[in-house]
């Protein structure tokens, strides 16, 4: 079946996030990933590793922690990254970002945080940490328009539509 594809590109946004953290003096940057069988988790993890390499930073053993999909599942990840003296943490999933920001709010040490956000509610907390904003709304609009185009023209060629995420610095960077 020939079908159109919608995708997001987070590579450049992750590079900007790692670069901003490195410029702020962070060399021990941890990463909390989502579920391993989700393609966006694998893509974001690969982009993080690449960004760290380009910025001349090493990904030490334990710097990558796997989060879960359950509420409050990130406490162990947060504790592990703090025990490894990570001074900054990037969280690769919107729901996990909310859990991690809540956890670190009450932790004795507050690492710099960069989290993915994919809806306006999550963006409201973005003043407290850097964000990688996903183009969710634009992606939905484009998907709807593409569906209507293909319904109107059943023999039309499919398209690959890829939208870029953007990095926005939190107040701690300014």
What does this structure look like?
By secondary structure, this protein is α/β, with parallel strands linked by helices. The mean pLDDT is 87. It starts with a strand and ends in a 6-residue tail after the last strand. Strand 4 (88-91), helix 4 and strand 5 (112-117) form a beta-alpha-beta unit. It has helices at residues 11-23, 39-54, 75-83, 94-105, 120-123, 136-152; strands at 5-9, 29-33, 64-66, 88-91, 112-117, 130-133, 160-164, 166-168. Helix 1 (11-23) crosses helix 2 (39-54).
What is the element layout, followed by pairings?
Blueprint: E1 5-9, H1 11-23, E2 29-33, H2 39-54, E3 64-66, H3 75-83, E4 88-91, H4 94-105, E5 112-117, H5 120-123, E6 130-133, H6 136-152, E7 160-164, E8 166-168
Parallel strand pairs: 1-7, 2-3, 2-4, 4-5, 5-6
Antiparallel strand pairs: 6-8
Helix pairs in contact: 1-2
List keywords for this structure.
two-stranded parallel ribbon, alpha/beta, 174 residues, 6-stranded mixed β-sheet
Brief synopsis:
The model has no long low-confidence stretch (mean pLDDT 87). Helix 1 crosses helix 2. The protein is an alpha/beta fold and 174 residues long.
Cross-sheet strand order for the largest sheet? 3-2-4-5-6-8
Distance between the termini: 49 Å
Number of strands: 8
Give a short account of the largest sheet.
6 strands, mixed
Integer-rounded radius of gyration: 17 Å
The parts where pLDDT drops under 50 for at least 5 residues are: none
């Amino acid at each position: 079946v020939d079908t159109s594809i919608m995708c997001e590109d987070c590579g450049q946004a992750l590079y900007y996030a790692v670069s901003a953290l490195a410029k702020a003096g962070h060399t021990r940057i941890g990463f909390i990933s989502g579920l391993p069988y989700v393609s966006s988790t694998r893509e974001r993890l690969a982009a993080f590793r690449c960004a760290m390499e380009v910025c001349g930073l090493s990904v030490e053993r334990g710097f990558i922690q796997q989060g879960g999909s359950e509420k409050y599942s990130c406490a162990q990840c947060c504790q592990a990254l703090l025990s490894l003296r990570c001074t900054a943490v990037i969280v690769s999933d919107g729901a996990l970002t909310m859990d991690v920001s809540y956890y670190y709010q009450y932790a004795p040490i507050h690492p710099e945080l960069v989290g993915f956000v994919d809806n306006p509610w999550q963006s409201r907390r973005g003043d407290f940490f850097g964000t990688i904003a996903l183009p969710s709304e634009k992606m939905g609009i484009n998907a709807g328009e593409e569906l209507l185009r293909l319904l109107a023209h059943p023999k039309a060629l499919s398209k690959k539509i890829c939208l870029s995420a953007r990095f926005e610095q939190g107040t701690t960077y300014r």
